[in-house]
Write a structure and sequence with these properties.
alpha/beta, Four Helix Bundle (Hemerythrin (Met), subunit A), four-stranded parallel β-sheet, four-stranded antiparallel β-sheet, zinc ion binding, ligase, EC 6.1.1.16, aminoacyl-trna synthetase
Length: 464
């Protein structure tokens, strides 16, 4: 069964065929780095990392590009509010992004282009659009001539007339048509800017991705991905710019993940339900957060709540327990024969997993396969004697599946020095009569398999 994916451009599932054999050129729209990322940003990071992992598992070489928007209205506003320079803020939050997503086990992109490092290519791209009659300059600003591109609206499936009815020219804009959009913005006083043929300024938002995709992946790419909210106008404008400039199809497949809601409401700062990944992974196991994000098909909306995250933890723990029980039992297993039925059962689970992932990367159903694998592992472990070969096949199947899904079932043991440090903190907490904290540390260590014994000579500890 070949990989089928849902193409937002055609609104249908299609067989996946690459431009180059066994190679995937994949571009994912990254964050605007003016603050810590929220869980809405985390979903595409996790989802498309999983797509990449599965494509690599299927034998493809994936050239994965995720950009950073490091100059933008939001960055300029943040710089003014914080009294810092735009590059300083961008650098800080790029590092914060990388730290946050690495905790969620998101692999590093092959290329992480930045707007500020692609300025020459952006300016050249805009010049090419002007030369071809698809753009025009007005007093230092440059706009894309939307009506000059015949297929505008094909991604969002809207006609030019439908789009025209909702378009407006904002105060200060000099564009000729409400549908036209900015490629280059004239610099305001004391604003970060670059030299260009049209004067000091900086790029518009949409042009950056067209230029970076062309620079790193070429005129036509296999997959372009991002959040559903980017379909219009951002991705629509990317198509118009790139295809007008290159005279070629821009991306063969468009993937979009669904929205996240918080307690069935839209996430927003005004509602006070704005959750930062930075805070979330401090309170919850990042493996559980990732498991939760993949428990719903990527195209469907997902609702976030503490109760749903707790439920995801219970589900994750069931799978992890089965895996740990296999590891424990392996030491006492034997070289047994006549295990063909179990070997075939494990192979069937692996095939089911592949079938689900081949069907538009259906991680929700793939996790169901993991539960089925766990159930059969638990049944097998109830037998009086177990085979080393079968145990290893079970473990290998778990490793392959969770490797694709990108979470870990391995428990990281506390180092001796970490245990000693926690014990010292507990001793001090008891001296300070902070018994709640002392009990919390004891419980934390117990969960990690560390038992404490308070004696007249001090506190001793041992691993279970």
């Amino acid at each position: 069964m070949s990989i089928k994916l849902y193409n937002s451009l055609t609104r249908s599932k299609e067989d996946f065929k690459t431009i180059e054999e066994n190679k995937v050129k994949m571009y994912v729209c990254g964050p605007t780095v003016y603050n810590y990322i929220h869980i809405g940003n985390a979903r595409p990071a996790i989802v498309f990392d999983t797509v990449r992992r599965y494509l690599e598992y299927a034998g493809y070489d994936v050239e994965y590009v995720l950009n950073f928007t490091d100059v933008d209205d939001k960055l300029i506003k943040a710089a003014n509010e914080m009294g810092e320079e735009v590059p300083e803020i961008a650098e800080r939050f790029i590092e914060a992004y990388k730290e946050d997503v690495s905790k969620l086990n998101v692999k590093e992109a092959v290329h992480h282009p930045r707007v500020t490092e692609t300025m020459d290519q952006i300016i050249e791209f805009i010049s090419g659009l002007i030369d071809k009659g698809f753009a025009y300059s007005v007093e230092g600003d440059v706009y894309f001539k939307t009506r000059a591109f015949d297929n505008y609206g094909k991604l969002s499936h809207q006609s030019i007339d439908e789009l025209r009815s909702g378009a407006r020219i904002q105060v200060g804009e000099k564009k000729k048509d409400p549908l036209d959009f900015a490629l280059w913005k004239k610099a305001k006083p004391d604003e970060i800017s670059w030299e260009s043929p049209w004067g000091e300024g900086r790029p518009g938002w949409h042009i950056e991705c067209s230029a970076m995709a062309k620079e790193y992946l070429g005129d036509t790419i296999d997959i372009h991905a991002g959040g559903q909210d980017l379909t219009f106008p951002h991705h629509e404008n990317e198509i118009a710019q790139s295809e007008a400039h290159n005279d070629k199809s821009f991306a063969n497949y468009w993937l979009h993940n669904g929205y996240i809601q918080i307690e069935n409401e839209k996430m927003s700062k005004s509602l006070g339900n704005f959750i930062l990944v930075h805070d979330l992974v401090e309170k919850h196991d990042p493996n559980v957060v990732r498991f939760f994000m993949l428990s719903v098909h990527y195209r469907n909306p997902i609702n976030f709540s503490d109760e749903l995250l707790a439920s995801a933890k219970n589900s994750y723990d069931r799978i992890k327990t089965a895996y740990e029980n296999l590891l424990h039992r392996r030491a006492s297993s034997l070289d047994l024969t006549e295990q063909e039925d179990w070997i075939n059962t494990i192979k069937a689970h692996k095939n089911n997993f592949i079938d689900e992932m081949n069907d538009d990367f259906n991680t929700a159903n793939a996790i169901t396969v993991l539960f089925d694998l766990s159930k059969d592992a638990n049944i097998y472990l109830r037998e009086d004697q177990t085979s080393t070969e079968v145990i290893d096949l079970f473990l290998s199947a778990f490793d392959e599946m969770v490797g694709v899904l990108g979470f870990s079932l391995q428990t990281e043991e506390l180092l001796d020095e970490d245990i000693d440090q926690l014990i010292e903190e507990r001793i001090q907490a008891r001296k300070d009569k902070n018994f709640a904290r002392a009990d919390e540390i004891r419980d934390q260590l117990k969960e990690e398999g560390i038992l404490l014994e308070d004696t007249a000579q001090g506190t001793r500890w041992r691993r279970q």
